[in-house]
Amino acid sequence: MGVKTVRSFCDVPAGREVEQGILITLPPHTGTGTLTFDLHARHLYSEDEMKSGRSYARYRAIIGALTMKGELLARGAVEAEFRSAADLFDRIGGGNGPGGLKAVAPAGREQVIVEVPAAVEQVSLLGETLDSVTPAGHETVVLPGRPVAVVSNVLFEFQPAPVKSTGHR
């Protein structure tokens, strides 16, 4: 949970199988629905790096929104740079760090809009790649299970499906 925005944040893992992603179960709907969410870079904040002046990081993360059959509905991408705590979108509470904050923090924000066909009942958000430059060097991540980004503010707008009649009154 974000301390400033009070949003729920969730890591998006990399993977090749839709079951490895964030699974979002959608309510029954008619016609196309619209899934929106904010995509953030996933930064590991370090007070020691800030004090030593080695706090620069740049991230480019790409994720896919897929049906459970593996059909790509849309891609989302976020690019963010970090130089100071002011560059973070929010901090996440409940950790062991100073002030009870977690080291993982969302940076940057890109809104992603996904058109979801009526027949789709579940969507998987699955990381494709993370390209990062940090004081440790340049890294490209595609390892299954490794978090590549963070999502928040997930919303599904839809036309409800008609209620099925049981024939009883």
Task: Briefly characterize the structure.
The protein is mainly β and 169 residues long. The chain has one helix at residues 47-52, and strands at residues 9-13, 22-25, 29-44, 57-67, 72-82, 104-116, 122-134, 137-141, 147-160.
Considering the chains and any ligands shown, give keywords for the structure.
169 residues; mainly beta; 5-stranded antiparallel sheet; 4-stranded antiparallel sheet; 1 helix; 4% helix; 54% strand
Tell me about this structure.
This protein has 169 residues and is mainly beta. The chain has one domain. Helices cover 4% and strands 54% of the residues. It contains 1 helix and 9 strands. The strands form 2 sheets. Strands 2, 4, 5, 7 and 8 form a 5-stranded antiparallel beta sheet that branches. Strands 1-9-3-6 form a 4-stranded antiparallel beta sheet, with no helix packed on it. The longest helix is centred in the first third of the chain and has 6 residues, at 47-52. The protein is elongated, with a radius of gyration of 18 Å. 30% of the residues are buried. The mean pLDDT is 90.
